[in-house]
Amino acid sequence: MLYAVVDIETTGGFASGNGITEISVLVHDGERVISNYETLINPQQEIPAYIEALTGISNELVAKAPSFHEVASEIYELLHDKVFVAHNVNFDFSFIRHHLASSGYELQCKKLCTVRLSRKLLPGYSSYSLGKLCTSLNITLNNRHRAGGDAAATAELLTLLLQADTTNIIGQALSRSSKEQALPPNLPRSEVDKLPLSPGVYYFKDQKGKVIYIGKAKSLKKRVCSHFTGNNPGRQRQNFLKDIHRIDFEICATELMALILEATEIKRLWPENNRALKRFEQKYGLYAFNDQNGYMRLGVDKYCKNTAALYSFNTLLEGHNILRMLIKNHLLCEKLCFIQRNRAACTGHEEGSCAGACLNKESAASYNVRVKYAIDELTTMLPSFALIDKGRTEDEQSCLLVERGLFYGMGYISQYTDINEPDMLKSALQPYPSNDYVLHMILAHAEAFPQKKITI
To answer: Per its UniProt record, what Gene3D superfamilies does this chain match (predicted)?
Structure first.
């Protein structure tokens, strides 16, 4: 079996937006290096100053070097029928596969990661970065951060790993059924093996235990593994895969519960690699307050998380429609509800539906009674129900509770729990913050599966 030990230098951290500036390929026969290929490459883009400082490769140095397209056929012939070996193999492989594809070549070959193999075959070292590992193993590493020097050290490391492999770990990693080399370099296989096929939420954590990504899944193991398949050259994937050291998870009985937990946890922890749900915010709320004259006033305004809203809305129109209904039903003043602004008296006073609070003709005490009735109507018209579904085991069922238009919480209850006893039901559920995103998911699910809904 022949191995192609590869190292590259690049203009940046992800393949789709960066070029290769240098490549070294050492062909290894399992005992020693038998041939060597190395060349500078003109990336046909500017080399950032920090990259030049790290590698010593400047724009001037590569100005007369061949482009990748010019050497693509040689590189493909070196790699396509060998085992592709690199320290953090998915980084090098993603670059070379991407740039070969741009030149018309499709690279399909087996891979070995010397970071992952070192962790298994040479356990106990404090760091598995190439520089520190070479120091620990007394491997000579010349020209650090240059393709030739790093590839030579990786080839020497491969020789040690092949010698240390007395239980055929490398052979198992290369078998078709193994997904070992697709995993991030710092993630132990045991972290994936422990994942169940149940719905739930998973947490990718870095070396310090900080959550860097949260996701939900119908099947935890399948979804997590899907993150590591393929060789997506994009920025986000390349940036976070190298930081994944652990996976934690929480099983949920249903996909809806997983969706709610995911949304809640993203808002709580704000992982750096989650984006879409971070941007969700409630837009408008219906608020009540007393003005300086003692009148209780209702109004729709932009949602403020530090002030309790009577109800929240996605659109200003939805809020005004509900407010106008309350005005009509309880003879409230449109001016005091901020529907009309530039008038001494509201049109309702002229038509007889407003008793004159806008002109101080009706006392605050009398007017506030009707406002309180309006608020009571609002709370009674908001839905209260439970969604009952399967549990994690046959001995339980899942429950989501909506109370007066707000999501209260969710959890697992016995089949003998009295759903119509709110206090008993709440004691069995975990409270969660309510927002329009979560409530919309619950209401849509209740509409799609009315048989699961129990009105309270």
So the answer is: GIY-YIG endonuclease, Ribonuclease H-like superfamily/Ribonuclease H
Secondary structure (DSSP) of 369-433: HHHHHHHHHHHHHS--EEEEEE-SSTT-EEEEEEETTEEEEEEEE-TT--TT-HHHHHHTEEE--
Q: Are residues 13 and 155 in the same domain?
A: yes
The total domain count for the chain is 4
Check whether residue 226 and residue 146 sit in a common domain: no
Place of tokens 């990336």: 43
Q: What is the pLDDT of residue 159?
A: 97
For residue range 355-378, list pLDDT tens digits in order.
Answer: 999 999 999 999 999 999 999 988
Domain that holds residue 296: 284-381
Closest CA to 238 of 4, 12, 11, 51: 12
For 121-148, write each residue's pLDDT tens digit: 999 999 999 999 999 999 999 989 999 9
User: 3-state class of 203 per DSSP?
Assistant: strand
CATH of the domain at 126: 3.30.420.10
- In tens, the pLDDT along 250-260 reads 999 999 999 99
Q: Which tops the pLDDT comparison, 228 or 74? A: 74
**One domain, residues 65 and 168:** yes
For residue 234, pLDDT beyond 60: no
Among 260, 279, 298, residue at a domain's last position: 279
CA dihedral 8, 11, 12, 14 (to 10 degrees): -60
